[in-house]
Amino acid sequence: MMMMMGAPGGAEGKRYTLNFSLNFINLLNRTNLSNPVNNLRSSNFGQSLFPVGGFGNFGGSQAAGNRRIQASVRFNF
Question: Does the pLDDT at position 60 exceed 70?
Fold first, then answer.
């Protein structure tokens, strides 16, 4: 005896989903400063003089954490 297993409810039982998502990282774009000057003789001792890195992979490091918006679409069948 053979049994055929299919989707519940036949072909009409197939379910499709389409998901959209947006992921905002550092939305308010707070400035991420570099390490402060650690030379005691410098007049800028203890101050951060410039921001860390650049934008994403375009001349900066991922650790800079600059503003990013990621969009994705997922289709399940």
Answer: no
